[in-house]
Amino acid sequence: MKITLTQFVSLDGVSQGPGSADEDTSDGFGRGGWFVPFMDAAFVRTASEWLDHADGLLFGRRTYEAFARDWPRITEPDPFTVRMNSLPKYVVSSTLAEGTWAPTTVLRDVEGVRRLREPVAEHGAAPGRAR
């Protein structure tokens, strides 16, 4: 599996809480929701196309927990909901016991991420892929 980073980051380097004011208020962050006012139909179309190329989603624990809390509850049809909820999720965490947002595989360390990148023939099948 090829790993590609897609991240929403402001020009001054902020990537925390782009979606809503209360998305991530950790460490006193009070400027959540900075990204949503700038989304338009062209951006949604482009981001949807990026997601169409994904075989899975790779998260750190904090981002995974926020997404796992919110995405399964989204019911309005949009270009992202079905894909986000159905793609295999991989979360790197030494503390998370199991994932709650199906289908999720917990990777205990970066070695698990390395194994995701191995060609399928080396170990039968990548986690989350059919043999």
Brief rundown of the structure:
This protein is α/β, with parallel strands linked by helices.
Count of discrete domains: 2
Radius of gyration over C-alpha positions, nearest whole angstrom: 16 Å
The count of β-strands is 3
Sheet having the most strands: 3 strands, parallel
**H/E element order:** HEHHEEHH
Strands in their spatial order, largest beta sheet: 1-2-3
Given the helix and strand composition, which structural class is it? alpha/beta
Percent of residues in helices comes to 25-40%
Low-confidence stretches: 122-126
CA(first)-CA(last) distance = 14 Å
Shape: globular
Instruction: Tell me the β content.
Output: 5-15%
The whole-number mean of residue pLDDT values reads 85
Q: Treating each run of at least 4 consecutive H or I residues as one helix, how many helices? A: 5
Give a verbal description of the structure.
The structure is a single chain. This protein has a three-stranded parallel sheet with strand order 1-2-3. The chain has five helices and three strands; from the N terminus they run αβααββαα. 31% of the residues lie in helices and 9% in strands. The protein is α/β, with parallel strands linked by helices and 131 residues long. It has two domains: 39 residues, no CATH class; 77 residues, no CATH class.
List keywords for this structure.
131 residues, three-stranded parallel β-sheet, 9% strand
Topology:
Blueprint: H1 41-52, E1 57-60, H2 61-70, H3 81-86, E2 89-92, E3 104-107, H4 110-117, H5 120-123
